[in-house]
Design goal:
mainly alpha; 0% strand
Amino acid sequence: GRLKRTLKIRCRCVAGVLRMTGEITQSAWRGRVTCLPLVVMLLAIASAAAFADSPPRAGQTASDVDSLRDADRVEHLMSWGEQALAGERYAEAGARFSDVLRIDWNNPKAYRLLQETREARARALRDWERAGRSAEARGDPSLAVQYYQKILAEDSLQQNLTGVIARLERRARADHLIREGLQKYIVDDFAGAQSDFEKALSICPADSLAAGYRERALQKATISSSMADLRADTLMWARYSEALKLLRAGDLGGAERLWNEVLARYPGNEAVRSNLEQIARRRKQEFSNEEIAP
């Protein structure tokens, strides 16, 4: 800015002297003025003005201008650091207050806020670590990941958290798929539930809940498919329904006979097989009770 103002003043001075010299020369040719002494004086003034610097404003020096620029930078950095501190971005806040102290090493506010930032950062790291472990223990991997990511953003040296975060993110994806599968299982969407449980097992192969419900969903899907064929056969469906009534009435032999007839027609029907297995278990239980009766 100073250089630009200086160049403008020099150019104006030179242009003015040249214009006046031209006018005086024209007058001299007409014999009205002896111009040589005046021309010499104007050229001297132009030379002095051309090499002079732009004058400072009243009461201001070049060092004052530089100080004002530093003051603006300090004000901007302090505001930035305070906003970062309020937002719990401690590493960012500490860097800005340190920048202020590089400009003004004796700034008491910057020094105080830098100390507060370091203390708050240490407390926050401890609190986030406890909260992350607590979330893990409660079975909330998504929340634990949020706390561990905040720690890693503030302390890049804790690279051991990278593997922990990756493990918890896999756990969170598997949990989401299991929840989706259970919702589908409840509304009898067994094929969709089986697909979700298999995806969860691809992420966490050792998950016993997903494995157990996958087998249940597969069995239910098979039964549902076989029952659709059975309902379409009016005669066999009537015998199946009659066998259910006999079973509820305690006539195990009658129910077993009818279901064996249905199974002969539909050997792959899992519902009929399951019912026959239930009759076998009840007979075994009755036999055991007879053995221990007084």
